[in-house]
Amino acid sequence: QVQLAESGGGLVQAGGSLRLSCLASKRTFSDYAVGWFRQAPGKEREFAAAINRVGGITRYSDVVKGRFTISRDNAKNTVYLQMSSLKPEDTAVYYCAAERIVSALVVPNNPNEYDYWGQGTQVTVSS
């Protein structure tokens, strides 16, 4: 079991930046790939970014590629999502998710592949 806690959400103007953090309770956090997903009101949860369990391999949705950067610090049990050039359509609840994966090469982007989820943090981008 691993517990995840997101932080860093808030209200920002269009064009601004935010950094989200996902803190994990597990000391063996380096065994887990981590993804960031988001869900806007009335829409399905969608993939934003993911990183492999040791860092160095990342995946992004086309919508956020070039604007968001995912990274991790396993010594701090934390994964970050740096969001820049934010747009009103980025407004959503952002969730981090983790999955224990043997291969360091695997970076899932399907929410069904993740077993552990945080409670989410709200990001609101005003126009």
Layout of helices and strands:
Layout: E1 4-7, E2 10-13, E3 18-24, E4 32-39, E5 46-51, E6 58-60, E7 68-73, E8 78-83, E9 92-100, E10 116-117, E11 121-126
Parallel strand pairs: 2-11
Antiparallel strand pairs: 1-3, 3-8, 4-5, 4-9, 5-6, 7-8, 9-10, 9-11
How would you describe what is shown here?
By secondary structure, this protein is mainly β. Helix content is 0%, strand content 48%. The chain is built from no helices and 11 strands. Strands 2, 4, 5, 6, 9, 10 and 11 form a 7-stranded mixed beta sheet that branches. A 4-stranded antiparallel beta sheet has the order 1-3-8-7, with no helix packed on it. A hairpin with a 6-residue loop joins β5 (46-51) and β6 (58-60). It starts with a strand and ends with a strand.
Descriptors:
single chain; 127 residues; mainly beta; seven-stranded mixed beta sheet; 11 strands
Question: Which band does the percent of strand residues land in?
Answer: over 45%
Low-confidence parts: none
The secondary-structure class comes to mainly beta
Question: For the report, how would you describe the main beta sheet?
Answer: 7 strands, mixed
Succession of helices and strands: EEEEEEEEEEE
> Which whole number gives the mean pLDDT?
96
Overall shape = globular
Number of DSSP strands?
11
* Contiguous helical run count: 0
